[in-house]
Amino acid sequence: MDDKRLQEFYRGKKVLVTGHTGFKGSWLTHVLLLLGADVVGVALPVEPDKRMFTQTDLQSRVRHYECDVRDADEIQKIVSTEKPDIVFHLAAQALVRRSYEEPVFTITTNVVGTTNVLEAVRTTPTVTAMVVITTDKVYENQEWVYGYRENEKLGGYDPYSGSKAAADIVANAYRLSFFNPAKYGDAHTTLLGIARAGNVIGGGDWSEDRLVPDIMRSVLHGDGNVSIRNPHAVRPWEHVLEPLSGYLLMGMRLAKGDTEVSGAWNFGPQHTSWVTVGDFATKALAQLGKGSVQIAQDSAVAQTKHESTELVLDTTKAYRRLGWASRWSFEKTLKETVRWYAVTAEDPESVSRITQEQILDYFNFSE
Question: Cα separation of 53 and 352, whole Å?
Answer without folding.
Answer: 10
